[in-house]
Amino acid sequence: MHERPDRMKTLARLFLLIVLIVVTPVPAAPALPFKSKVTRHNYERVHNGMTKAQVERILGKPAEMKNEMGLQDLGEFDSWIYWRGEIMVMIGFSNGHVSDKSWTQD
Predict the structure, then answer these.
(1) Model pTM greater than 0.90?
(2) Which residue, among 50, 58, 63, has the nearest Cα to 90 in the 3D structure?
(3) Mean pLDDT throughout 100-106?
(4) For residue 101, which of 37, 42, 73, 84 sits 20 to 30 Å off, Cα-Cα?
């Protein structure tokens, strides 16, 4: 006998929950998917002599960093590797400045 009023309450609560989910604002920044800075345009902006900070402003933080000491005190060599799908970008640094770069796409 009390089944109908209970069912109506349940449906009303469900409807209210759906309305709250639909109209509740969601913070925009975290909800947006991460947009990679690894684009051909940004890659072309990187040039020899740039510092690591300049490269990071253009391409963001690298996925991988490798460090090697040069032979016979030739200095320090670093490689920053970026991935975006099938694209790999490698930025080489010699003593903290860009010395070479490569763009590989399968």
Answers:
(1) no
(2) 63
(3) 92
(4) 73
